[in-house]
Amino acid sequence: MTRFRWFGPGRLLLVLLIIVLLNETIGYGQAARLHPRRIAVWGSSVANGRGDEFARDGYTGLVRAMMAAKGWEVVNQSRGGDNTRSIVPRFIPTGTPDPKIRYLTTVNPSYVVIGLSFGNEGLYEAKTTAEKEAVFKGYGEGIRALVDLARQHNIVPIVSGVYTRQVYTPEDYSFVRRMNVIQQQWDVPLVNFLGATDDGAGRWSLGWDDKHPQASGHREMFYTFVPTLFEALEAGKPTPLKSTGTGFARVSAGRAPFTFVPEGTVHPFAVSMMVRAQGNGTVAAITGSTLTTRTEMRPNEGTPFEATTLVVDRAFTASVAVQNGRWVYQSANGTVVDSGVAADARWHHIALSHYTGWGETHLYVDGALKGKVTERLEPKQFVVGGPGSTGGAAGPKQSDYKDVLVFRSALNADEIAVLTSGKILQGSLEVYAPLTDAAFMANGITENRAQSLATLKIGSDRITPAVDTSSTN
Prior knowledge:
Elements: H1 9-31, E1 38-43, H2 58-68, E2 73-76, E3 111-115, H3 129-152, E4 156-160, H4 170-183, E5 190-191, H5 194-197, H6 215-222, H7 229-234, E6 247-251, E7 258-260, E8 269-278, E9 281-300, E10 303-323, E11 326-330, E12 336-342, E13 348-355, E14 360-365, E15 368-374, E16 377-384, E17 398-407, H8 413-420, E18 429-433, E19 457-458, E20 463-467
Parallel strand pairs: 1-2, 1-3, 3-4, 4-5
Antiparallel strand pairs: 6-17, 6-20, 7-16, 7-19, 8-13, 8-17, 9-10, 9-16, 10-11, 11-12, 13-14, 14-15, 17-18
């Protein structure tokens, strides 16, 4: 029997041919696996740090510093002026790479943050509604195409959402809000920038010029990144899906049934939950520090401008409660926003949305805005079901909770409407606890479906798992 010569000339030629074919087929996508903890931010001028008067790469530089402390690498492959069309040739070079061009695949990332906005798409410049609709459609399709392209090359995509522009009209703003809601329901992780940058009219709350935030604005955008998002993706945690379970948590006169202590700094935020309460008492509490503004003249690209910095002021406690039988929000300065809606035997959707840059907190009950208050907050702890250690009134004699969500971004009326309808938004979502757990063990944690490693901890209160047999949400 003739023995096969593995290292013969013919076999060597075959091996070389296979290597060539593999290189042609896999290309840069295979190379991406060589750097499992490398993130590329690939976008336009804001992603490139434009407007940051300290020239530290804006929000990208802040993400880099955060992830470097965890052993990750962040590279900036952005270029000012790019849109969903002009960025495509920068995905992978044709032939010899141009050393002056920031391609994506040449840095071999395992993750890519796609950082493009309407600012370079021509939304404002479009003259008619039909033209704006075309821009809207093209932008959405363009971002989806980039997501698909990244996945084809084994790069995990993350989308940074749409944000503000100083010249946007009310019609432009409506398109921005529409896209923001649509993208948060994609099967792609999204960072909700709009909730950090909006002033309520689609313009910068902390801006530098028409299209760019100042350094403090970049910082607000950075705070909308869930700190453990990339580790959650690394662990294979999927896009959160709405629970179909009928379970909920029943709490009796709670003090701290469920507690969430976020990692790092939180500025804009939103808390959403379904609640049913009998009697007065605290159903959620937030503690932390209030913020105040400090302004000074600084140069930016050689031009002096009035820069705004947010600085810690004093400790605060705020709460959502049932007072006199109605849902209320008691703000950091003690102002009470009375919704006028009775807490009864029905489930109610309660949402609190805080815009740090804008400086407002909004209370929504059953999808309707019931009041707002001027304040700037930096929360450090969230409690669901009671006042925590604040010394406030205990939770109601009996109260039920399900579908608790905590976002690292404020939510507008459009987003609240989606949640009220029973759907899930995943932009900057850090905690999604359906509270359908079979048991709630003291000092344990609840299920968290958000793409994060954050935990909602269970206290020592009396918490009973129950099942809702009604058809009412």
